[in-house]
Amino acid sequence: MKNILTIEDLKLRARRKVPKMFYDYADSGSWEEKTYNSNSDDFNKIKFRQRVGVNVEKRSTSTNFLGQPVSIPLALAPTGLCGMQHRDGEILAAQASEEFGVPFTLSTMSICSIEDVAEKTNKPFWFQLYVMKDKEFISRLLQRAQEAGCNVLQITMDLNILGQRHADVRNGLSAPPKFTLKHIKQIISRPGWALGMLKAKRHFFANVVGHASGVTDNATLWSWIAEQFDAAFSWEDLDWIRNQWNGKILLKGILDPEDADMAVKLGYDGIIVSNHGGRQLDGTISSISALPNIVDRVNNKCEVYMDGGIMSGQDLCKALCLGAKGALIGRAFLYGLGAGGKEGVTKCLEIIKNSLDETIAFLGEKDVNNLNRENILLENLNTRKF
Known about the structure:
- It contains 15 helices and 12 strands.
- The protein has 386 residues and is α/β, with parallel strands linked by helices.
- The chain has a single domain (7-377), classed as Aldolase class I (TIM Barrel), CATH 3.20.20.70.
- The strands form 3 sheets. Strands 4-11-10-9-8-7-6-5 form an 8-stranded parallel sheet. It has a two-stranded antiparallel ribbon with strand order 1-12. The protein has a two-stranded antiparallel sheet with strand order 2-3.
């Protein structure tokens, strides 16, 4: 992809190619978007300690996630409506991540189904679960994911109710969606996207339609979705999910050290420090700001990942310095997907890897596994200060 040097370049190209309603779905937060913005802005509060006179030949960015080797400490996060950024979006993103050597996570609310992705890939991918009221559907979903070879389950902990997402409401992406002449104009203005979608096998949530009881078409789909958020969801509800899953489990959406304590106490394999990309509770802490206190509290009793705001290898490096085992990216790879399909996702990963590799060299390090808080300067944290 000529002249693409940063994730921002991918973002600008995606904006020109994807209809506004779907671009905004990927690039917006809840309420006034304070948390959405702080996820990125708070990385700027962390400064690197540049070192010189150090031999930094033969550097390595590889590590392992839950015993699985990865080329860089990164995974693709679960993102709903991924297949609306580009035709067969989940399949293309999974293929790109597989070839690059990092995990891909398929969302419960994906456009392509578990089986669609498994058919077009060669290695196990991760699966993300929304805990819904329809327990029979969830049981079948977990069985399907395991039959497809998924070896890691991410359970989303922070979506028992839906945050107020103003951009989605204005764009008619509610349940049920409200499509108008405005949306038709948006689609017509993106002919390349539209022609691609005409060739797509899936256009709705394929993990749900034909699998959830009574959900047979678009109309019944949205009625079902509107009833599924479970405000009564609690830690106790995780037991029956755990009993049906044979692989590793990560709990996604942890922001408070006390919740991290609970995850450790219950014996989960890892946690993902995340605020749902700033799309749930606005005004809460950014993921990168929450990370160090959670790392300290967990104290190596489980693996700690973070998700939210990473737009470069330098952002990833800062998360690693603060103690994250690795990080997940959502918007960054969606920009790549919208900008250029599989090639765009690969470009996103290349940008992050190259930036990470060069940054650790400037820090006087050869191996990402050796990064720690000695490599950075921070404000208002219990490490080195300005």
